[in-house]
Amino acid sequence: MLRWLVAVLSHSCFVSKDMFYAVRKGRRTGVYRTWAECQEQVNKFPSASFKKFATEKDAWAFVRSGLPGHQQPEPAGDFAVVYTDGCCSGNGRSRARAGIGVYWGPGHPLNTSERLPGRQTNQRAEIHAACKAIEQAKSQNIKKLIIYTDSKFTINGITSWVDSWKTNGWRTSSGRSVINKEDFERLANLSKDIEIQWMHIPGHAGFQGNEEADRLAREGASKQWS
Fold it and tell me: Taking the C-alpha atoms of 8, 12, 13 and 18 in order, what is their torsion angle to the nearest 10 degrees?
């Protein structure tokens, strides 16, 4: 009996490492990678709705099923929420055109659609869209911000990789120079003196905020440099 219990517990612990925790109703809806993060959103929250999934796709489907018309998740408390996106047609080619989109809500005066200055790549567009959103938030004296983006590269870069890159003289673990050094330096500097929650959201999955940010980014890519 003891061996069986140990085996079950060991198996449960192993599986949970790759779990995705979906919060359909809580303080802040979304998908989280740890139970601790999920618990913060649902503990003592009236009629909280949450579930554990093996894949991120299934987790977001659960979240989306509780949002009428695939509306964007709404935070509680004193956090402002914004969606950012970047795009680049002909990415990696000489005639590439990149744009950034920032979406705060229907008809919001801060909604932004701009052509990306400088090197035209999709990754730079994603980073600079987030930079624009933070600049706008600070201009409005916003102290707490949730940024929804479909760019895992941007999220991982600012939350996990930047500190290691700085320590290594802006070189990757393989010894190569970080291609987007200046872009991440700007994002890291802007992220100071403001509390940011970075949230990944799947692109083209029916979430209004993400779809609008994508539309704004594509419009921005079609513009001329100002």
Answer: 150
101 membership: H or E segment, kind and range: strand 97-103
Q: According to DSSP H, which parts of the chain are helical?
A: 2-16, 35-42, 56-65, 122-139, 152-156, 162-167, 181-190, 208-221
Residue 82: per-residue pLDDT? 95
CA–CA separation, 167 and 57 (whole Å): 34
Place of tokens 């905020």: 209
State the pTM of this model: 0.75
Pure H helices in 44-139? 56-65, 122-139
Residue 12 pLDDT class (50, 70, 90 cuts): very low
Q: Is 44 left (phi over 0), alpha (psi -120 to 50) or beta?
A: left
Let me know: does 149 contact 83? Beta carbons within 8 Å: yes
State pLDDT tens for residues 115-146: 999 999 999 999 999 999 999 999 999 999 99
pLDDT tier at 11, thresholds 50, 70, 90: very low
Nearest to 195 by CA among 136, 142, 124: 142
